[in-house]
Amino acid sequence: MVVARHRVQSGIQYCGLGVVNCPRLPNFDKSNGYEEIAPLFVPGRGSNTSGVGASVVAEWSQRLPRGAAILDLGCGTGVPISQVLIERGFKVYGVDASPSMVAAFQARFPNVPVECAAVEDSDLFGRTFDGAVAWGLFFLLDIGVQRRLIAKIAGVLGRTGKLVFTSPSQESSWQDAMTGRTSISLGYEAYRQTLESAGMSLVGTRRDLGDNHYYIAEKR
Ligand SMILES: C[S@@+](CC[C@H](N)C(=O)[O-])C[C@H]1O[C@@H](n2cnc3c(N)ncnc32)[C@H](O)[C@@H]1O
Predict the structure, then answer these.
(1) Using CA positions, which residue lies closest to atom 27 of ligand 1?
(2) Which of 77, 78, 84, 79 is nearest to 56 (CA)?
(3) 74 CB within 6 A, ligand 1
(4) What is the CATH code of the structural domain delimited by 32-219?
């Protein structure tokens, strides 16, 4: 089984968890600062199996067919989001731009396919999915990248495909608490319109105990 995919132009990336072959141009971090703070993230949220978000994603997954294939975009270590899906029998495929996160994911889930790549560059395994989840990813990306990512996800979701992603309901920008980089939310109306343009409908929203806001969408 394929457990990791790396692009041809990969170089050697040194990280806290060892040496990982991973694409990375000098001084150009596609993980939006998360590779740098991985030594803090991996033993923190990245190891907390009861971390915030798991229950909302578990509830969302109940509407997917048994054994469905689910893309976890910006999967991090896979804990807790991929994990809660794997435990429910779904076929998870992870993508993350941070080599250290991917190394931690592979160590924990050696039989689950994971690609070390930026979501905007990835071919998303060149297949279709029943569902896609992106917890804590969208707002790290530039506005144009967020819009294109929604269209890209819609393109790999099957006829009844479902998407859940987190981002604040208000159009806003702020400093990411861990990396200090600027995060941007397009806000409810712009996400709704972008989903509509991509052939998806925004069918609901949720909020969790950590005050994270979830957008839930389905293919039309
Ligand atoms: C806030 S963390 C969330 C990780 C995980 N989803 C979770 O629930 O713990 C954001 C993740 O997105 C990844 N990331 C940031 N920019 C990315 C990009 N352009 N492509 C792929 N992954 C990216 C980071 O490396 C990090 O693992």
Answers:
(1) 76
(2) 84
(3) yes
(4) 3.40.50.150
164 CA distance to ligand 1 middle (Å): 15
- What are the structure tokens assigned to 26, written together? 């000098």
Residue in the block written with tokens 């981002």: 167
Q: Whose CA is nearest to atom 15 of ligand 1?
A: 31
In sequence order, the 6+-apart residues with CB closer than 8 A to the CB of 170 are 185, 187, 188
96 Cα–ligand 1 center, Å: 6
Q: What is the pTM of this model?
A: 0.90
Please say whether the dihedral angle defined by the alpha carbons of residues 61, 77, 49 and 108, taken in this order, is positive or negative: positive
User: Ramachandran region of residue 51, left (φ > 0), alpha (ψ -120 to 50) or beta?
Assistant: beta
**pLDDT (tens digit per residue) in 49-81:** 999 999 999 999 999 999 999 999 999 999 999
Q: Is 31 in the pocket of ligand 1 (CB under 6 A)?
A: yes
